[in-house]
């Protein structure tokens, strides 16, 4: 999976007192008279990271005022330059083009002692340098009913900002800009209609880098509408909606699928063009009724971080979505390494004492499951696997990794025929204590009385006011003869610091927070 980092818009160094100089340099701060329209921003942007230019996505909105005499005013014309100044343009007589002259001042940098002004720049990727294109005196945007688009820009020719006196790049540039009218309805999550019972399907695909993915998703059908949930591991509860015509199901691009890391994410299709790049588009699946299988027609299914262009977090191809004959139940051997939030979402979490503290996903870095202590209540929390098909007359082994972070923790493991605490009636591993900082592989052997679906529950029963228990790498296999149960090995003591999610830090890189060190809770300010 290719991860593209979205960097928050940078604060402008030295611009804290710039506003007092606005009128001196012709910088327009007040909103001009006219009709105000708000557009969603899409496209790409360059910004400085340290001393080097980096590329990101344009996000957020842009305000545009349409005034008399064909005048048009853009607020914050460059996406990463978060200064609320306005620049002027002219709408053509036919209403199809907006022209914005370069050389308009947008900010004053008190640290540099220079005005920041608009310019067209050429980008040299080899040297990571921008050079002003002095022959370019304006930029133009095409105007249609549904969008406003920057004309003629690319990764190497950009609409940017320079220091007027030194004629050097000021750290801001956009290209591929597309502005579409904002409508709040676009950012409403898709919901499964009432009365539709989803079925479990198996989703198999390759990530952009070839990494294979396989997990359960839900599919619901109502007339010619097809709803799918769980296609994106970052937002496993999100539904997307498609419309079936013939054998194809089309999912409209830019469907909102929720917040990830504080930013809105959208579903889209990605189609490879003649230049080998991906264009954003609707996503289409072909449906084979005989095998009850969906396969991708569009090259990629994309989890996108903006609208209108491809700027993705996840991209899948070679997609096969097949009806699961076991209705989501897994078969032996079963393993789970909690690589994604979607994997964790398949487990049933029961906070039996209802104290607000229970099992949580450790995140994409830790890739484990954690229980965090409650100061006043002993732990009584279940982490229960999805359904697993098992048979009698077979001995199985259940094993998993444990780590206690700073204090003695206690757990037990049971099995039942339903994912409830009451159904957990047979013990696989009796109550077991793990000392602070111990890392161990736990295991227990068991059998079941009849063919069917079973659920295994890890029950944390630590005393009150302990700390963090980490669980990872669950496995259920047919037991080897003479296998040793209740293994507790690989004890490890160290002098590192651990945060509440069990992540290890050395003393030199500690952000502020609560840690465990040498068996004690430590507060770093």
Write a short abstract of this structure:
By secondary structure, the chain is an all-beta fold. A hairpin with a 4-residue loop joins strand 3 and strand 4 (71-75).
Q: How would you explain this protein's 3D organization?
A:
2% of the residues lie in helices and 51% in strands. The chain is mainly beta and 525 residues long. The strands form six sheets. The chain has an eight-stranded antiparallel barrel. The protein has an eight-stranded antiparallel barrel with strand order 14-15-16-17-18-22-23-25. Strands 26, 28, 29, 32, 35 and 37 form a six-stranded antiparallel β-sheet that branches.
Which SSEs are present, and which pair or pack?
Blueprint: E1 35-49, E2 52-57, E3 61-66, E4 71-75, E5 86-91, E6 97-101, E7 105-109, E8 114-124, E9 129-132, E10 138-143, E11 148-150, E12 157-163, E13 168-181, E14 199-207, E15 212-222, E16 225-229, E17 239-245, E18 248-251, E19 255-260, E20 263-272, E21 278-281, E22 283-288, E23 293-296, E24 300-304, E25 312-323, E26 334-336, H1 341-345, E27 348-351, E28 359-361, H2 363-366, E29 369-372, E30 381-384, E31 388-390, E32 396-405, E33 409-416, E34 426-434, E35 439-446, E36 452-460, E37 468-478, E38 497-498, E39 504-505, E40 513-517, E41 520-524
Antiparallel strand pairs: 1-2, 1-3, 1-13, 3-4, 4-5, 5-6, 6-10, 7-8, 8-9, 8-12, 10-11, 11-13, 12-13, 14-15, 14-25, 15-16, 16-17, 17-18, 18-22, 19-20, 20-21, 20-24, 22-23, 23-25, 24-25, 26-37, 27-30, 28-29, 29-37, 30-36, 31-36, 32-35, 32-37, 33-34, 33-36, 38-39, 40-41
């Amino acid at each position: 999976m290719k991860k593209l980092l979205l960097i928050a818009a940078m604060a402008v160094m030295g611009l804290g007192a710039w506003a007092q100089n606005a009128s001196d340099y012709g910088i327009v701060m007040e909103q001009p008279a006219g009709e105000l329209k708000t557009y969603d921003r899409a496209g790409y942007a360059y910004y400085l990271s340290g001393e080097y230019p980096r590329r990101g996505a344009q996000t957020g909105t842009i305000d545009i005022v349409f005034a008399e005499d064909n005048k048009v005013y853009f607020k914050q014309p460059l996406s990463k330059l978060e200064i609320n100044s306005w620049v002027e343009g002219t709408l053509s007589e036919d209403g199809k083009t907006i022209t914005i002259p370069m050389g308009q001042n947008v900010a004053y940098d008190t640290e540099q002692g220079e005005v920041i002004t608009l310019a067209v720049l050429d980008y040299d990727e080899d040297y990571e340098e921008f050079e002003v294109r002095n022959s370019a005196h304006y930029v133009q945007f095409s105007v249609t009913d549904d969008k406003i688009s920057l004309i003629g820009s690319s990764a190497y020719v950009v609409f940017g900002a320079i220091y007027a006196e030194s004629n050097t790049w000021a750290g801001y540039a956009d290209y591929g800009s597309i502005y579409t009218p904002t409508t709040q309805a676009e950012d409403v999550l898709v919901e499964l209609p009432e009365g539709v019972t989803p079925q479990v399907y198996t989703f198999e695909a390759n990530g952009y880098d070839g990494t294979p993915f396989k997990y359960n998703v839900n599919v619901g059908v109502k007339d010619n509408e097809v709803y799918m949930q769980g296609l994106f591991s970052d937002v496993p509860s999100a539904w997307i909606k498609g419309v079936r015509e013939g054998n194809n199901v089309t999912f409209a691009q830019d469907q909102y699928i929720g917040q990830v890391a504080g930013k809105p994410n959208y579903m889209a299709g990605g189609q490879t063009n003649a230049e080998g790049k991906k264009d954003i588009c609707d996503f289409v699946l072909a449906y084979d009724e005989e095998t009850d299988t969906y396969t991708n027609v569009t090259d990629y299914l994309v989890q996108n971080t903006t609208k209108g262009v491809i700027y993705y977090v996840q991209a899948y191809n070679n997609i096969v979505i097949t009806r699961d004959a076991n209705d989501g139940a897994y078969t032996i051997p079963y393993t789970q390494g909690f690589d994604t939030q979607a994997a964790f979402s398949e487990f049933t979490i029961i906070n039996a004492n209802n104290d607000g503290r229970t099992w949580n996903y450790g995140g994409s870095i830790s890739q484990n499951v954690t229980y965090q202590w409650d100061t006043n209540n002993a732990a009584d929390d279940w982490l229960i696997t999805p359904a697993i098909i098992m048979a009698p007359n077979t001995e199985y082994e259940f094993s998993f990794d444990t780590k206690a972070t700073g204090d003695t923790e206690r757990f037990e493991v049971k099995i039942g025929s339903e994912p409830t605490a009451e159904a957990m009636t047979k013990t696989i591993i009796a109550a077991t204590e793990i000392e602070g900082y111990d890392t161990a592989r736990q295991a227990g052997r068991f059998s079941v009385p009849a063919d069917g679906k079973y659920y295994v529950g890890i029950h944390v029963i630590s005393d009150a006011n302990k700390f963090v228990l980490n669980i990872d790498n669950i496995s259920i296999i047919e037991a080897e003869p003479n296998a040793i149960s209740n293994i507790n090995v690989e004890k490890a003591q160290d002098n590192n610091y651990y945060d509440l999610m069990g992540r290890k830090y050395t003393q030199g890189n500690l952000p502020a927070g609560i840690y465990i060190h040498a068996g004690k809770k430590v507060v770093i300010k």
